[in-house]
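Researcher: Sequence recovery benchmark, item below. Answer with residues only.
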């Protein structure tokens, strides 16, 4: 699943490709992917110009002025811009024909991606209802609310970080990475973390997600940015996908277990339970 660094990289690519472009027409091959009124979606966007492409957590926001199209890539979603005729592909599901002759195509092997049309004035309420946490930046991701959230939870730390309420944007890859960096076992109960562990975890979340953005995200299987390019963050991963390899810090072999139903990589020596 694309996580915050990958979605931010896609956003930057889309910003270069489609900002200030007008929608001429829309073709939807898989109607269930549109979660708001389908007819309203079809008739509202043609004639509108993409003013900005923004991001909140793992959500892409196409700003059309009064309305915003909220797009979530889920497991395999990606955007491609075809300058001329769009090639046939059974995994192309939404087509945004632009007045300059090009077509923005949404591709999704699993068809899990979602689209919603939301009034810009309602966007804050939309994300409040989603219970989406703050962006993982030094300005918005404050230590005290994060610390309080951990102290009030009896959940294991990994599932808690994945649910997006305490901080937005972490997925399976980056949760494994930040927990390894902070030397915290993924099954530790959140309310058992010490203040120093919580402080280090807070700093590592900001550092690693920032690094992920700088490196263009991680290409593990199918992820590419909107320009069709691979990310490079996979070269900097310390623990994710390294089962059986030596821990870069202590040399102990990395193990993989299931935590909350998710494959989880950790060092048994550095990250004691």
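Model:
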């Amino acid at each position: 699943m694309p996580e915050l660094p990958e979605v931010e990289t896609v956003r930057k690519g889309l910003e270069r490709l489609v900002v200030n472009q007008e929608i001429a027409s829309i073709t939807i091959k898989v109607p269930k992917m549109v979660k708001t009124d389908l007819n309203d979606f079809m008739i509202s966007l043609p004639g509108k110009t993409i003013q900005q492409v923004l991001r909140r957590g793992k959500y892409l926001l196409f700003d059309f002025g009064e309305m915003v199209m909220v797009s979530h890539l889920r497991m395999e979603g990606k955007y491609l811009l075809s300058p001329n005729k769009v090639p046939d592909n059974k995994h192309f599901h939404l087509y945004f024909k632009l007045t300059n002759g090009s077509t923005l195509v949404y591709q999704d092997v699993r068809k899990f991606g979602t689209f919603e049309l939301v009034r810009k004035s309602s966007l804050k309420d939309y994300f409040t209802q989603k219970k989406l946490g703050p962006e993982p930046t030094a300005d918005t991701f404050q230590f005290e609310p994060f610390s309080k959230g951990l102290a009030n939870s009896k959940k294991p730390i990994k599932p808690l970080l994945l649910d997006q309420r305490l901080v937005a944007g972490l997925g399976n890859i980056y949760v494994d990475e930040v927990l390894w960096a902070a030397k915290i076992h993924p099954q530790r109960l959140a309310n058992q973390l010490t203040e120093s562990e919580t402080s280090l975890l807070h700093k590592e979340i900001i550092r690693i997600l920032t690094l992920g953005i700088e490196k263009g995200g991680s290409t593990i299987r199918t992820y590419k940015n909107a320009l069709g390019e691979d990310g490079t963050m996979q070269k900097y991963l310390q623990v994710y996908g390294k089962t059986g390899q030596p821990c870069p810090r202590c040399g102990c072999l990395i193990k993989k277990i299931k935590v909350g139903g998710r494959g989880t990589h950790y060092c048994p020596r550095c990250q004691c339970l």
